[in-house]
Design a protein that fits this description.
The chain is of the alpha+beta class and 306 residues long. It folds into three domains: 83 residues, Uridine Diphospho-n-acetylenolpyruvylglucosamine Reductase, domain 2, CATH 3.30.43; 110 residues, Uridine Diphospho-n-acetylenolpyruvylglucosamine Reductase, domain 3 (2-Layer Sandwich); 85 residues, UDP-N-acetylenolpyruvoylglucosamine reductase, C-terminal domain (Uridine Diphospho-n-acetylenolpyruvylglucosamine Reductase, domain 1), CATH 3.90.78. 28% of the residues lie in helices and 26% in strands. It is built from seven helices and 19 strands. The strands form six sheets. The chain has a five-stranded antiparallel sheet. A four-stranded mixed sheet has the order 1-2-5-3. The chain has a four-stranded antiparallel sheet with strand order 15-18-17-16. Helix 1 packs antiparallel against helix 2. The longest helix has 19 residues.
């Protein structure tokens, strides 16, 4: 079956408004680059997600789940197969006492605002992270001393057979930018976030303070995917120190540039191509290896056709 035949099957499952053919991925990533996806789907229920996976498995079609593409770099030739976006229709948040139940497509900023509205503290660190809950669980997202592992107590997920399962506590296997879901063929569906009662004014003040810090230290005025490289914690280095130590601050290839403001950010300053960004990534990896004998691993996920 070609993509048009598969699209017809997906339309029957999801409705025509939730199936797009040859959708430019630059519209769905914070880098604002990337070629088209063969099919771009927006399910809204567990049954629809399971149905998509079943169709893909039966027809040997590769699939990729995304949130809002804030930690994703799609190559210029795009993605063969199916991209499944959860942010648009799979983003509910419900507060039960001091627990927030949030679906995988919920933005972290929305969850933080929900916590503020209900006087719940502990999620302020995530208020400025431009991602969705599902992606944050997969990579144990964190900022300013907080990580998802500090607040998430349970996660429901779907395995490759469409079965819904759950993990709790230590079974999340949270590590530095990693979790049980990182290299597994599963999709995060919902997490339970345990917070504690706090003063609304103090919660808001902390969120505002963190927002100011981000604006001061990060190049938020340009498209980017946040921190590109994982820090070398065991060696005692932050990634920006290694990039800066190679005198690469401000280095540019095509329309992509290593930010002067924060050199662990690569920014799209002038209609960059994904290949420009990838060339900068490879340059940093080569220079850091030569000077410090350290391997730089990316935080961002690079997908698509070469």
């Amino acid at each position: 079956m070609d993509k048009y035949e598969i699209a017809k099957v997906m339309v029957q499952l999801l409705g025509p408004e939730n199936v797009k053919i040859d959708e430019p991925m630059k519209k769905h990533t914070s880098f604002k680059v990337g070629g088209p996806a063969d099919l771009f789907l927006t399910p809204g229920t567990y049954e629809e997600i399971a149905g998509i996976m079943n169709i893909c498995h039966k027809n040997t079609i590769p699939y990729l789940f995304i949130g809002n593409g804030s930690n994703l770099l799609v190559r210029d030739k795009g993605i063969q197969g199916v991209v499944i976006q959860l942010q648009e229709r799979f983003n509910k948040c419900v507060v039960r006492g001091n627990i927030i139940e949030a679906e995988a497509g919920a933005l972290l900023s929305v969850i933080a605002q929900t916590a503020l509205k209900h006087g719940l503290s502990g999620f302020e660190f995530a208020s400025g992270i431009p991602g969705t809950l599902g992606g944050a669980i997969v990579m144990n997202a964190g900022a300013y001393g907080g990580e998802m592992k500090d607040v998430v107590i349970k996660t429901e997920y779907m395995d490759s057979n469409g079965k819904i399962k759950a993990v709790e506590g230590e079974n999340h296997k949270f590590g530095y930018r990693s979790s049980f879901a990182q290299n597994a063929d599963v999709v995060v569906l919902k997490s339970y976030i345990r917070l504690h009662e706090g003063d609304k004014d103090e919660i808001k003040k902390l969120m505002d303070d963190l927002k100011c810090k981000r604006k001061e230290k990060q190049p938020l005025e340009y498209p980017s995917a946040g921190s590109v490289f994982k820090s070398k914690r065991e060696e005692g280095y932050y990634s920006w120190q290694l990039v800066d130590g190679c005198c690469l601050r401000g280095y540019r290839i095509g329309g992509a540039e290593i930010s002067n403001k924060h050199c662990n950010f690569i920014i799209n300053v002038d209609n960059a191509k994904a290949s420009d960004i990838i060339s900068l990534i490879k340059l940093v990896q080569t220079k850091v290896k030569e000077k410090f004998n350290l391997d730089m691993e990316t935080e961002i996920k690079i997908v698509g056709e070469e």
